Protein backbone atom coordinates (compact mmCIF):
# COMPACT_ATOMS: atom_id res chain seq x y z
CA UNK A 1 0.00 0.00 0.00
CA UNK A 2 1.56 3.28 -1.15
CA UNK A 3 -0.94 5.65 0.46
CA UNK A 4 -2.14 6.91 -2.96
CA UNK A 5 -5.90 7.21 -3.00
CA UNK A 6 -8.33 6.61 -5.81
CA UNK A 7 -8.86 9.74 -7.92
CA UNK A 8 -12.57 8.94 -7.93
CA UNK A 9 -12.82 8.94 -4.16
CA UNK A 10 -14.78 11.76 -2.50
CA UNK A 11 -12.73 14.82 -1.74
CA UNK A 12 -11.64 15.74 1.77
CA UNK A 13 -14.59 16.96 3.78
CA UNK A 14 -14.38 19.99 6.07
CA UNK A 15 -15.41 17.94 9.12
CA UNK A 16 -11.90 16.39 9.26
CA UNK A 17 -10.77 19.32 11.38
CA UNK A 18 -10.70 19.88 15.10
CA UNK A 19 -10.34 17.27 17.85
CA UNK A 20 -13.52 15.26 17.19
CA UNK A 21 -14.54 12.83 14.45
CA UNK A 22 -17.91 11.19 13.76
CA UNK A 23 -18.19 7.42 13.68
CA UNK A 24 -19.81 6.25 10.42
CA UNK A 25 -21.70 3.53 12.32
CA UNK A 26 -22.69 5.03 15.66
CA UNK A 27 -22.85 8.64 14.39
CA UNK A 28 -21.27 9.72 17.65
CA UNK A 29 -18.46 12.27 17.70
CA UNK A 30 -15.42 11.24 19.72
CA UNK A 31 -11.80 12.36 20.13
CA UNK A 32 -9.89 11.07 17.11
CA UNK A 33 -7.40 9.34 19.44
CA UNK A 34 -10.20 6.93 20.40
CA UNK A 35 -11.07 6.10 16.81
CA UNK A 36 -9.65 4.42 13.72
CA UNK A 37 -9.40 6.26 10.41
CA UNK A 38 -9.83 4.46 7.09
CA UNK A 39 -9.13 5.67 3.55
CA UNK A 40 -9.59 4.23 0.07
CA UNK A 41 -6.57 2.75 -1.67
CA UNK A 42 -6.00 3.01 -5.43
CA UNK A 43 -8.31 0.04 -6.10
CA UNK A 44 -10.95 1.41 -3.70
CA UNK A 45 -9.77 -1.01 -1.06
CA UNK A 46 -10.57 0.04 2.50
CA UNK A 47 -7.24 0.70 4.23
CA UNK A 48 -6.84 1.30 7.99
CA UNK A 49 -4.86 4.50 8.56
CA UNK A 50 -3.71 3.94 12.12
CA UNK A 51 -1.45 6.99 12.18
CA UNK A 52 -4.18 9.18 10.71
CA UNK A 53 -1.86 10.65 8.07
CA UNK A 54 -2.73 9.05 4.72
CA UNK A 55 -4.20 11.38 2.08
CA UNK A 56 -7.83 11.22 1.13
CA UNK A 57 -11.21 11.56 2.75
CA UNK A 58 -11.25 9.76 6.07
CA UNK A 59 -13.91 7.31 7.24
CA UNK A 60 -13.86 7.03 11.01
CA UNK A 61 -14.94 4.24 13.36
CA UNK A 62 -14.96 4.03 17.13
CA UNK A 63 -12.00 1.86 18.10
CA UNK A 64 -14.02 -1.25 18.90
CA UNK A 65 -14.22 -4.60 17.19
CA UNK A 66 -17.99 -4.80 17.46
CA UNK A 67 -18.34 -1.46 15.68
CA UNK A 68 -16.11 -2.72 12.86
CA UNK A 69 -18.25 -5.85 12.51
CA UNK A 70 -21.38 -3.72 12.29
CA UNK A 71 -19.74 -1.52 9.67
CA UNK A 72 -18.89 -4.58 7.57
CA UNK A 73 -22.32 -6.15 7.95
CA UNK A 74 -24.29 -2.99 7.24
CA UNK A 75 -22.34 -1.59 4.28
CA UNK A 76 -21.22 1.48 6.21
CA UNK A 77 -17.99 1.83 4.23
CA UNK A 78 -19.86 1.72 0.91
CA UNK A 79 -22.18 4.50 2.06
CA UNK A 80 -19.36 6.61 3.50
CA UNK A 81 -17.27 6.20 0.33
CA UNK A 82 -20.29 6.97 -1.88
CA UNK A 83 -19.65 3.95 -4.06
CA UNK A 84 -18.43 0.35 -4.18
CA UNK A 85 -15.43 -0.58 -2.04
CA UNK A 86 -13.24 -3.64 -1.59
CA UNK A 87 -13.13 -4.97 1.97
CA UNK A 88 -10.10 -7.11 2.90
CA UNK A 89 -11.15 -10.38 4.54
CA UNK A 90 -8.49 -9.85 7.22
CA UNK A 91 -9.30 -6.22 7.98
CA UNK A 92 -9.71 -6.76 11.72
CA UNK A 93 -6.45 -8.71 11.91
CA UNK A 94 -4.67 -5.92 10.02
CA UNK A 95 -5.89 -3.42 12.58
CA UNK A 96 -4.88 -5.58 15.55
CA UNK A 97 -1.43 -6.32 14.11
CA UNK A 98 -0.89 -2.68 13.22
CA UNK A 99 -1.84 -1.45 16.69
CA UNK A 100 0.43 -4.03 18.34
CA UNK A 101 3.27 -2.81 16.13
CA UNK A 102 2.58 0.78 17.15
CA UNK A 103 2.71 -0.17 20.85
CA UNK A 104 5.99 -2.03 20.30
CA UNK A 105 7.48 0.91 18.40
CA UNK A 106 6.47 3.42 21.08
CA UNK A 107 7.89 1.23 23.85
CA UNK A 108 11.09 0.93 21.84
CA UNK A 109 11.30 4.71 21.53
CA UNK A 110 10.74 5.05 25.28
CA UNK A 111 13.43 2.47 26.06
CA UNK A 112 16.01 4.14 23.80
CA UNK A 113 15.16 7.55 25.28
CA UNK A 114 15.72 6.24 28.81
CA UNK A 115 12.02 6.66 29.59
CA UNK A 116 11.18 2.98 30.15
CA UNK A 117 12.66 0.06 32.06
CA UNK A 118 11.69 -3.59 32.30
CA UNK A 119 12.08 -6.18 35.04
CA UNK A 120 11.01 -6.52 38.65
CA UNK A 121 13.94 -4.78 40.33
CA UNK A 122 14.40 -1.87 37.92
CA UNK A 123 10.66 -1.31 37.72
CA UNK A 124 10.24 -1.32 41.48
CA UNK A 125 13.06 1.20 41.84
CA UNK A 126 11.29 3.56 39.47
CA UNK A 127 8.02 3.09 41.34
CA UNK A 128 9.64 3.85 44.68
CA UNK A 129 11.44 6.88 43.25
CA UNK A 130 8.22 8.33 41.84
CA UNK A 131 9.48 8.06 38.27
CA UNK A 132 6.51 6.06 36.95
CA UNK A 133 3.74 7.43 34.74
CA UNK A 134 2.47 4.20 33.24
CA UNK A 135 2.73 0.50 34.04
CA UNK A 136 2.78 -1.91 31.09
CA UNK A 137 2.39 -5.55 32.08
CA UNK A 138 2.35 -8.75 30.05
CA UNK A 139 -1.14 -9.85 29.06
CA UNK A 140 -0.19 -13.48 29.80
CA UNK A 141 1.61 -12.75 33.07
CA UNK A 142 0.44 -14.19 36.36
CA UNK A 143 -2.31 -11.98 37.85
CA UNK A 144 -0.91 -12.59 41.32
CA UNK A 145 2.60 -11.55 40.26
CA UNK A 146 1.27 -8.47 38.51
CA UNK A 147 -0.63 -7.52 41.66
CA UNK A 148 2.46 -8.03 43.88
CA UNK A 149 4.48 -5.72 41.66
CA UNK A 150 2.46 -2.74 42.87
CA UNK A 151 1.88 0.52 41.12
CA UNK A 152 -1.43 1.28 42.81
CA UNK A 153 -2.90 4.50 41.42
CA UNK A 154 -0.98 4.27 38.15
CA UNK A 155 -2.60 3.62 34.77
CA UNK A 156 -2.01 -0.04 33.85
CA UNK A 157 -2.22 -1.53 30.35
CA UNK A 158 -1.61 -5.10 29.19
CA UNK A 159 -1.41 -4.88 25.39
CA UNK A 160 1.38 -7.39 24.66
CA UNK A 161 2.53 -10.83 25.76
CA UNK A 162 5.65 -11.38 27.85
CA UNK A 163 7.48 -12.60 24.75
CA UNK A 164 6.50 -9.49 22.77
CA UNK A 165 7.61 -7.19 25.59
CA UNK A 166 10.83 -9.17 25.88
CA UNK A 167 11.70 -8.54 22.23
CA UNK A 168 11.38 -4.78 22.79
CA UNK A 169 13.75 -4.89 25.76
CA UNK A 170 16.22 -7.46 24.43
CA UNK A 171 15.11 -10.23 26.79
CA UNK A 172 13.48 -13.63 26.48
CA UNK A 173 10.42 -12.21 28.18
CA UNK A 174 9.32 -9.24 30.26
CA UNK A 175 6.29 -9.08 32.54
CA UNK A 176 6.70 -5.61 34.05
CA UNK A 177 7.57 -2.39 32.20
CA UNK A 178 7.52 1.04 33.82
CA UNK A 179 7.31 4.14 31.63
CA UNK A 180 8.16 7.65 32.79
CA UNK A 181 5.43 10.31 32.71
CA UNK A 182 5.22 12.26 29.48
CA UNK A 183 4.08 12.19 25.89
CA UNK A 184 5.40 8.70 25.17
CA UNK A 185 3.56 7.25 28.16
CA UNK A 186 0.38 8.99 27.04
CA UNK A 187 0.79 7.70 23.47
CA UNK A 188 1.42 4.13 24.63
CA UNK A 189 -1.69 4.21 26.78
CA UNK A 190 -3.85 5.53 23.95
CA UNK A 191 -2.63 2.87 21.52
CA UNK A 192 -3.13 0.15 24.15
CA UNK A 193 -6.70 1.35 24.65
CA UNK A 194 -7.39 1.24 20.91
CA UNK A 195 -5.92 -2.25 20.73
CA UNK A 196 -8.02 -3.37 23.70
CA UNK A 197 -11.13 -2.39 21.79
CA UNK A 198 -10.18 -4.52 18.77
CA UNK A 199 -8.38 -7.54 20.16
CA UNK A 200 -10.51 -10.68 20.29
CA UNK A 201 -8.93 -11.64 23.61
CA UNK A 202 -9.14 -8.12 24.91
CA UNK A 203 -6.20 -6.83 27.00
CA UNK A 204 -7.39 -5.08 30.12
CA UNK A 205 -6.95 -1.33 30.55
CA UNK A 206 -7.16 -0.11 34.13
CA UNK A 207 -7.09 3.43 35.46
Automatic annotation (TrEMBL):
<dbReference type="Pfam" id="PF04296">
    <property type="entry name" value="YlxR"/>
</dbReference>
<dbReference type="InterPro" id="IPR035931">
    <property type="entry name" value="YlxR-like_sf"/>
</dbReference>
<feature type="region of interest" description="Disordered">
    <location>
        <begin position="1"/>
        <end position="20"/>
    </location>
</feature>
<dbReference type="InterPro" id="IPR029064">
    <property type="entry name" value="Ribosomal_eL30-like_sf"/>
</dbReference>
<dbReference type="InterPro" id="IPR007393">
    <property type="entry name" value="YlxR_dom"/>
</dbReference>
<protein>
    <submittedName>
        <fullName>RNA-binding protein</fullName>
    </submittedName>
</protein>
<dbReference type="InterPro" id="IPR037465">
    <property type="entry name" value="YlxR"/>
</dbReference>
<feature type="domain" description="YlxR">
    <location>
        <begin position="21"/>
        <end position="96"/>
    </location>
</feature>
